[in-house]
Design a protein that fits this description.
Blueprint lengths: L2 H22 L20 E8 L2 E8 L4 E4 L3 E2 L2 H13 L1 E5 L5 H11 L1 E7 L4 E11 L4 E6 L4 E6 L15 H4 L12 E7 L8 E6 L2 E6 L11 H9 L8 E2 L3 H9 L5 E7 L4 E10 L7 E10 L3 E6 H4 L12
Antiparallel strand pairs: 1-2, 1-6, 2-3, 3-4, 5-9, 6-7, 7-8, 8-9, 10-11, 10-14, 11-12, 13-17, 14-15, 15-16, 16-17
Length: about 325
C-alpha cells in the first residue's frame, strides 16, 4: 500500500468517525447556543419563581429600594441573589445529550426537575427553564428549555459544574441571614421563656426612659432593676444572624412543632410587629444522649427552620436574675 492510499484511507476513516459522532450526539435543536438558558439583560428582571413539586420560592425585585424580597415578606440575601444572577448570565453549554436519551431525559425533568420562571417589570415572562440533576461524570447539570424543546449539559466554565443548588427552592437559602436586627429604641417588649426552667423566664417591657421586669410564671414585678444592664441587653438584639439553612425543612418544622423548645424568645417592636424564635437543642452525632454544644435549631415564627450557633445567642439567653442589682 503506497503513501497516497494510506492518506486516502485515513481521510475516509476520520470522515466516517466524524459522521458517526454527529449522529451519536445528534440533537433536534437547530444550534447549540447558551442563549437558550441565559438572560442577557438582568436589569430587566423583576421577579423569579423557582418551584418543584409542592415547594416554591418567589423572589421579587424592588428597583426603588435596590433590594430583593423573598415570598413577598422577608429581605433577600444579596450573596445568594448575586450567585443566581451569575448563573443566569454565565451558564454555558458544555455537552449535548445522546439523541437516544433525549426524550426520556426531557420527560424526567418535566416530572421531577425544578421550574425557573423569570419575569420583567411588566410581569411578562422573559425566560422559562427547567433544571435537572447534576452529572458528575459529564461535568455538568441538565438544563431544559421547554419552549425550544432543547436539553443540554451545562456548567459555568472554570467555576462550577453542579448548578442545582443555585436554583434553590428552600426559602431560607434566599433570606438575609438575620434573626434579630433591632435597634434598642425599636424594642417595646421581650419575653424569654425557658419551658423547663420557668423560674428563670421573664417579660421585659420598655416604656420611654424606663423598663419593667416581670416573672413569667406569676407576673410578679422585679424590684431593684438595673437599667444599665437593660440598655446593654437591648443592644444585643442589633445583629443576630443564623449560621445556615437546613435540609428537609418542612419535615423538620413539623417535628419541632411537637417538641418542647430549649428556649423561646418573643420580641415586639414599637410598630407592634412580633417575631418569635424557638430554640431546640440538637442531639450529638458522636455521643448517645448528649447534645451538640455548638449549634441549635431555630424555628422562626413557627415557619422557617435554620441552624444557629450558641455563641451568637449567649448574650441574649440571660435569666431574670441578670437584671437585678
Amino acid at each position: 500500500m503506497n503513501k497516497t492510499q494510506k492518506i486516502t484511507i485515513s481521510f475516509f476513516f476520520l470522515l466516517i468517525v466524524s459522521v458517526g459522532l454527529y449522529y451519536f450526539f445528534k440533537s433536534d435543536n437547530k444550534n447549540m447556543t447558551s442563549e437558550l438558558f441565559i438572560v442577557k439583560d438582568t436589569a430587566d428582571i423583576a421577579k423569579i419563581i423557582i418551584s418543584q413539586d409542592s415547594g416554591k420560592v418567589i423572589l421579587t425585585r424592588n428597583k426603588e429600594l435596590h433590594n430583593w424580597i423573598v415570598d413577598n415578606k422577608y429581605p433577600g440575601n444579596k450573596k445568594a441573589i448575586k450567585k443566581l444572577y451569575q448563573t443566569l448570565t454565565e451558564v454555558r453549554i458544555s455537552k449535548p445529550v445522546l439523541h437516544s436519551k433525549k426524550d426520556s431525559l426531557m420527560k424526567n425533568i418535566q416530572s421531577n426537575g425544578k421550574k425557573v420562571e423569570i419575569y420583567n417589570s411588566d410581569n411578562r415572562l422573559i425566560k422559562r427553564i427547567m433544571v435537572g440533576s447534576f452529572q458528575k461524570q459529564l461535568e455538568g447539570t441538565y438544563l431544559y428549555n421547554p419552549k425550544e424543546k432543547s436539553i443540554f449539559i451545562v456548567n459555568i466554565p472554570g467555576l462550577e459544574n453542579d448548578l442545582n443548588y443555585r436554583y434553590n427552592i428552600n426559602p431560607v437559602y434566599w433570606l438575609k441571614p438575620e434573626i434579630f436586627s433591632y435597634r434598642p429604641n425599636d424594642i417595646k417588649e421581650i419575653v424569654l421563656n425557658y419551658p423547663e426552667k420557668p423560674s428563670k423566664s421573664f417579660k421585659l417591657k420598655i416604656l420611654k426612659d424606663t423598663a419593667y421586669l416581670n416573672h413569667l410564671s406569676n407576673n410578679a414585678t422585679v424590684k431593684n432593676l438595673n437599667l444599665l444592664k437593660v440598655g446593654s441587653y437591648l443592644s444585643y438584639f442589633l445583629n443576630v444572624k443564623f449560621a445556615s439553612e437546613t435540609n428537609d425543612t418542612e419535615k423538620l418544622r413539623n417535628k419541632l412543632l411537637n417538641k418542647i423548645p430549649y428556649a423561646e424568645i418573643t420580641v415586639i417592636d414599637i410598630n407592634q410587629h412580633t417575631k418569635n424564635i424557638k430554640l431546640f437543642q440538637i442531639k450529638s452525632g458522636s455521643e448517645f444522649g448528649k447534645y451538640d454544644l455548638n449549634k441549635l435549631h431555630a424555628l422562626i415564627n413557627d415557619k422557617d427552620v435554620v441552624i444557629v450557633k450558641y455563641v451568637d445567642f449567649d448574650l441574649i439567653l440571660k435569666d431574670i436574675y441578670y437584671f437585678v442589682n
